[in-house]
Amino acid sequence: MQDKHISLAHGNGGRYMRELIADVFARHLANPDLDIGLDAVPLSLAEGEVMFTTDGFTVQPLEFPGGNIGSLAVHGTTNDLAVAGAEPLYLSLNAFIEEGMEIETLDRIVASLAETANEVGVRVVAGDTKVLRRGEGGGLYLATTGVGVRQSDSQLGFDGIIDGDRILVSGPVGDHGIAVLLAREQFGLRGDVFSDAASVLPFTRAALAHDGLRFMRDPTRGGLATVCHEISQHTGLGIRMQQPDVPVRDAVQSVCEMLGYDPFYLACEGRVVAVISDAQADALLADWRRLPQGDEAAIIGTVHAQTDKVLLVTELGGERILDELEDDPLPRIC
Amino acid sequence: MQDKHISLAHGNGGRYMRELIADVFARHLANPDLDIGLDAVPLSLAEGEVMFTTDGFTVQPLEFPGGNIGSLAVHGTTNDLAVAGAEPLYLSLNAFIEEGMEIETLDRIVASLAETANEVGVRVVAGDTKVLRRGEGGGLYLATTGVGVRQSDSQLGFDGIIDGDRILVSGPVGDHGIAVLLAREQFGLRGDVFSDAASVLPFTRAALAHDGLRFMRDPTRGGLATVCHEISQHTGLGIRMQQPDVPVRDAVQSVCEMLGYDPFYLACEGRVVAVISDAQADALLADWRRLPQGDEAAIIGTVHAQTDKVLLVTELGGERILDELEDDPLPRIC
């Protein structure tokens, strides 16, 4: 490739596309199951329930402190499998690349995606690229679909959640949202906030060892508040969260106060929210705190049958309703 | 939803997104395996090899004679499974929707996608939506990942192709490319050309019944010529195609001549190219011609060891090299 930018010819099915796929995608993503000459690829699957999930990624900027759209795509999709109780195994990757994108940037992002996949233990085995006309593409969008295997004795879901269950979060909330926000530079602020984007597998594996575990979810778009609303809507039960118990980094809190955001609605990309029986909550908390990145895990609230609202109990003991998210606080955050 | 257009709030993870997913996506795509409350969904898979493929779709305009981006996404992805010898079972769906898109149009496209999935016999079981800022999204992009099952006795691939094998195509080439081109109206031309977008499963099932079948592929981006180049590059063998034997509709030929396109490089979305032993080629042709939409199937060429080029034998007996595609004749065709 002589030109260092993506052209429409990189998307046409011909020689330039073949070279781009070989030089950028296949080179970084090489693994024994990836064969770019195939229309469809066979998967080897261990015993258990085959689990399936998908996610699109449009984060802007494409690279931010703590990650980029490539590492985010792997974490986002494998984390969805993890919170469903599965071990992630395979990914498909769709790239929508805007004409004019620097191939060097694309290469760096694909390299990071490949490295992340390697760390998490998944293989990218199917892919497609499309090139979008200049001005039509926002740089790069990715879509990843994940396949994993779950041991079929895990019975996670909203159905098992009962009055008195406890809610845990594996670490501080809002880091990803604020890191991306600051990376956009439009506020002239610079912080030391890094995205929390990471695999949640160590946390989900630890949680699955407790038979009182009811439900897990990663609080991405819409944040912790949205997960609480989903739990409440599906179960008909209320949630009482203790505001002082929810871990939020000082830097995140400061930026939120300055700009009028609520960290409870901001995306995390490496946290888990778990609902577990009251009896086992302390044991799970202890397990999580022993994990790297787990020292700020916390029990943050309780499921209540007396209400169907998501309530926040403030430091002074007051209660306020945490509404369902309506306006978008931060577009293109994931 | 009061406003009839997509807003950024439809992508934020909150109430508007939940309503959009429920009202548009889940309503049309409803099936027993689709649960929009889950992070990942279990798949029930029949005995056989689990097959996996993915595709992105950026066609412009979103609706064209014979299809739309929704039906195209289902056909494109399930056809990739079909030509790999598999029965398609499940799809994931990613939608990147541009702010300002009419919800009515989106609804019509998702309804068509659902109807097509139903006809083909696949279930959409995982999905994600992202909303792109106005001007950044080109209306709508889709990405679909397919899972199917293949009976493991099928040994399709480039490896089995040998000197003397015959090449078949299941119908006329270039219809999809020209139908989309004309739908753009930028040439002021109107034709009676409809996209060939359709499931190729009847053709692939018929072909799999012949043990001399070596290889199948659907000639999408880059068209028939690109499939021939892939065969040649992977096998080191040449191909001699008989130009008069390749079915091209008159209307497609006329538009191509007028605008300087070559139908051999234009995308089809409902055709199969198959390589089969010389001994079984006529039998497969007879099977294909008995199928609906199969009456123009043809044996179009032969694999040759004497050359490593893709050659086109013209009506008058002259030979010309069919080069690998370089410039993009038609961006956003699929």
Q: What features would you describe in this structure?
A:
Two copies of one chain form a homodimer. The first copy, chain A, has two domains: 8-150, 60s Ribosomal Protein L30, Chain: A (2-Layer Sandwich), CATH 3.30.1330.10; 158-321, Alpha-Beta Complex (Phosphoribosyl-aminoimidazole Synthetase, Chain A, domain 2). In chain A, 30% of the residues lie in helices and 25% in strands. Chain A has eight helices and 14 strands. Chain A has helices at residues 15-29, 69-83, 103-120, 175-183, 201-208, 223-235, 250-259, 278-289; strands at residues 41-43, 49-57, 63-64, 67-68, 86-98, 123-132, 140-150, 166-169, 213-217, 238-242, 273-276, 298-304, 310-313, 319-321. In chain A, the strands form three sheets. Chain A has a seven-stranded mixed β-sheet with strand order 9-11-8-12-10-13-14. A four-stranded mixed β-sheet of chain A has the order 2-7-5-6. In chain A, helix 1 (15-29) packs parallel to helix 3 (103-120) and helix 2 packs parallel to helix 3 (103-120). The longest helix of chain A is centred in the middle third of the chain and has 18 residues, at 103-120. In chain A, 57% of the residues are buried. The interface between A and B is large, with 78 and 78 residues.
